[in-house]
Amino acid sequence: FEMLGNFSFGDYFKELAIELSWNLVTKEFGLAKDKLLVTVYADDDQAFDLWKKIAGLPEDRILRIATSDNFWSMGDTGPCGPCSEIFYDHGDHIPGGPPGSADEDGDRFIEIWNLVFMQYEQMTPDQRVDLPKPSIDTGMGLERIAAVMQGTHDNYEIDLFKDLIQASADASGTDPKGEHNVSHRVIADHLRASSFLITDGVLPSNEGRGYVLRRIMRRAMRHAQLMGCRDPLMWRLVPALVSQMGKAFPDLVRAEGLITETLKLEEGRFKTTLDRGLKLLDEETLNLGEGGVLDGETAFKLYDTFGFPLDLTEDALRDKGMRVDTETFNAAMERQRADARKAWSGSGDAATETVWFEIREQLGASEFLGYETEQAEGQITALVTDGARIDEITTGADAAIIVNQTPFYGESGGQVGDTGVITATNGAVFTVTDVQKKVNGVFVHLGRVAKGAFKVGDEVRLEVDNKRRGNVCANHSATHLLHAALRNLLGDHVTQKGSLVDSGRLRFDISHPKAIEAGELIEAEEAVNRQIACNDEVVTLLMEPGAAVEAGAMALFGEKYGDEVRVVSMGGAANEAFSTELCGGTHVRRTGDIGIFKIISEGAVASGVRRIEALTGDGARAYFTETEQTLSVAAALLKVQPADVPGRVQALIEERRTLDADLTAARRAMATGGGNGGGAPDTRDIGGIAYLPRLLEGMPAKELKSLADDLKKQVGSGVVALVSVADGKASVVVGVTEDLSGTINAVDLVQVGSLALGGKGGGGRPDMAQAGGPDGAKAQAALDAIESAIAPNG
Q1: Of the options 3.30.930.10, 1.10.287.990, 3.40.50.960, 3.50.50.60, the CATH number for the domain spanning 3-149
Q2: 787 close to 693: Cβ distance less than 8 angstroms
Q3: Is 142 left (phi over 0), alpha (psi -120 to 50) or beta?
Q4: What is the distance between the alpha carbons of residues 466 and 409, in angstroms, rounded to a whole number?
Q5: What would the CATH number be for the domain defined by 469-624?
Q6: Which of 90, 218, 320, 333 could bridge 153 with an S-S bond, Cβ 3.0-4.6 Å?
Q7: Topology of the domain covering 350-464
């Protein structure tokens, strides 16, 4: 549902909150006062008196509730306070009683607004103190207030849902108010939730919020299946949703393509999962009658092996009058989690991570100087080896050095850590191979002591490999330009889903529902290179996150930002730049420092996620040189000019196709033209059954079935067996004419042949089956084995 609300943090409190809410529902919304009643927490006399004073409500319509329904808290500790709820009375024709009564769960009295008066802080279960600045947090369900104002007690009868439910009914060809009424409602509701999650950058996956989205989507898809829909349904409802809500939520319009394609892909995947899961479920419940209980281990196998969520299993069983043993399911789930925890803790990572927490708590964060310099002096504050702090490291030791300040960038935000050297005043040298940024700004320099010894407290000089840093910066800045170019080209639904920026190349993952066309990649590449050619200054500003976003900066979904953020702009000032993003990484000084940009690949990595790999600067130039050399070699081999290579290659491909077709035709002619054909004898009589074996060389496996059909026609009544050998392996096909397929099964015969070839059997129909085997040298033995199996006593 959609939540409305108003808030106050240390400003107004109960009196004004009650006054504002009462004025809105009675004056602005025009609800009749005699249809409203309110609740207060049993001990909140102040709220009780304020409702009498402001709303003029009689005491019998201000109900004191002593339960947690009217006291809100975050948990065992934290801000908390009493609540006051506004209820609407739909009338005595609707079953149900007022809040606090025995039949309060009926639909007559519906809560439309909850006012939370946060005035305490729970310190311990037994101690509660006053907050220094009491606050207000209210929540009103849009669908509930819409139902009241539109004269219905049913949220699904409001305009927000009617069109979606009708669209679902039209697309499925079912009655919106008939037996599938609930399914239409689930689909409409879950379509809304899924679409807004996708719009906000969440895509279906098997973990985190992506898994929550997948479960929401699949529950709706399950209901589509219950209505008899065999083809994907939800994606066809997206236009109705956008038409209904796009004006209020423009981002929904921009993401329509992504939503549609994501739903379509997920529905296709889900159909495979559903078919497989339901088949297994049917097998497991075959002997369970109505009221039967499915073993939780089986339900867990469905979930863990086949990706079939528990709620779908429960839905499917509910239709059969059965249920899942959730206790054993939960036990299996917990066992898996325990195994995972054991495997993780056994790796040593947990102990190592504890060290960084201790260092952060005792020594504080490292100061990062790398935005301004690549060289700096500092003091060693800690040394770590094998997850433990030590006082000294010597030549050959693999260790981690923590310094009070550093120019080395620690891996984060997709950018790899710097490399370089740390030297001590005593001549000791430490080669830095990686830098990791641990808890709250602890920069960990990983590497090996090349010579000498380092001690805690030593003064050291830190020098970043500036050549490598320059390449990393070029790739990182190019990633920003690529992101902007793709959004301009493909639409605002394009958002970053991941990246890796190192010195050799950049890898950039984006949300996009389908393959990016070659022409679009060229356009994006050219747009980036135009920005590079402009050689504009890369501008970095420090701003508050809210102000940065208002200025046009793009915040990446899922990233955590502090009170102050770095805003990196390229191609103009922040509010009009080609690219403006919140970013803590390192970048080039001017776009021209990137040199040149080249996309080298594009492909899918997950549902609705595309990956682009690209090169810049020296890497791109090396790629061009290598490509040019490859083209020159190909041109020389083909004896044409480089520009003519594609045409010559295409001509050779066509020639090869023609030769392959001619060769296949010749083989078929030999196989069907009598004589030995491919070296096998003619038709034999096996106990009154005609048997035609053929041993072939190099006949493609895909051609064998059609050849077997031709030979069956020649035989008229009998069995045809073909074995083709290529690259030492063999393919075998057995065909049985229709008049014999009731007594002789081609599948049984082809399995005999496959076993002779070292295979594991095959499959097909009683009249035609196919298999293979790794030992082509036993092709004749396979034909002989099939012959023996045909014999009356075979």
Answers
A1: 3.30.930.10
A2: yes
A3: alpha
A4: 12
A5: 3.30.980.10
A6: 90
A7: Elongation Factor Tu (Ef-tu); domain 3 (2.40.30)
Amino acid at 393: I
* Pairing outcome for strands 109-124 and 127-141: antiparallel
SS3 112: strand
The Cα–Cα gap between 403 and 551 comes to: 36
Give the strand order in the sheet containing 597-606.
496-501, 506-511, 609-616, 597-606
Q: What's the pLDDT tens digit per position in 128-180?
A: 899 989 999 999 989 999 999 998 888 888 988 988 999 999 988 888 888 88
**Helices marked H in 291-381 — which ranges?**
296-306, 310-318, 326-345, 349-363
Q: Where are the domains of the chain?
A: 3-149, 158-284, 285-346, 350-464, 469-624, 682-790
For 388, the enclosing helix (H) or strand (E) is strand 388-390
- pLDDT, tens digit (0-9, with 9 covering 90-100), for 457-499: 999 999 999 999 999 999 999 999 999 999 999 988 888 888 9
- 406 forms beta bridges with 368
Amino acid letter, residue 363: L
Instruction: Judge whether 161 and 36 are in contact, CB under 8 Å.
Output: no
- Residue carrying structure tokens 């063999």: 730
Q: Using an 8 Å Cβ cutoff, are 442 and 362 in contact?
A: no
Global pTM reads 0.62
Question: What tokens appear for 730 in the block?
Answer: 């063999």
Residue 457, both tokens: 């407290």
Whole-angstrom CA distances from 114 to 11, 55, 70, 118 are 19, 16, 9, 12
**Which tokens in the block code for residue 633?**
């070699």
Q: The dihedral of CA 191, 197, 203, 204: what is its sign?
A: negative
d(CA 734, CA 650): 37
- Assess whether pLDDT exceeds 80 at residue 573: no
Neighbours of 575 (CB within 10 A): 11
